[in-house]
Design brief:
homodimer; alpha+beta; Arc Repressor Mutant, subunit A; 3-stranded antiparallel sheet; DNA-binding
Chain lengths: 97, 97
Amino acid sequence: MPLLNMPFKALSDPTRRKIIQMLKEKDMTAGDIADQFDMTKPSISHHLNILKQAQLVIDQRKGQNIYYSLNTTVFQEVINWFFNVTDRRGEFENEED
Amino acid sequence: MPLLNMPFKALSDPTRRKIIQMLKEKDMTAGDIADQFDMTKPSISHHLNILKQAQLVIDQRKGQNIYYSLNTTVFQEVINWFFNVTDRRGEFENEED
DNA sequence: TAGATATTTAGATAAATATCTAATATAAGC
DNA sequence: GCTTATATTAGATATTTATCTAAATATCTA
């Protein structure tokens, strides 16, 4: 099954895209992330889990907090998919997906 | 509402991504597209409609056939979203979405 | 205009998704 | 060890989505 399916699915939700953009600025705890949304913590936790499964973010516990940060490697693969479609291409051919 | 939401949603489905990649190679009729999938024509028609609403494809009737082709302008905006996240950036800032 | 071909629209349904509340886990501090 | 703070897991529910069959629309041709 397509490697890129999970990241594409993960990025199809506006809340998750916003989380990505927040993490671009700085690493954040789950709680700090949740505070930025009009949504319960379990809901945000669910979104973070989907981002994590798609390998778009990494989590790391520090004491009571769990810090989330971006994992840009998968983004590169998604960008390559777009390059392939628009013919502008990255470094390597990518017939994936 | 985020301008990029529809294209992101549209691209979250593997069938639709495959259609995009087929259209990258050449313009195709709805029927020819449907033939490449193990799925009914109405289902493909539905997928084509979602791609059209997201402005990722354009359709044009020619006689009995309706030809679909890529509309790369919106792809560029999506790519810019990724550039913004990965800090590699396109030509303009894009705080959209 | 009747029949054939290409495609979409309508309506139904099963599966996936986003969200909530309540309960559980994990760590820190007294 | 108990209490508080942070975060996740479990379970329920409403909405969205992908898919199908059947019906409708549009175009061509004889």
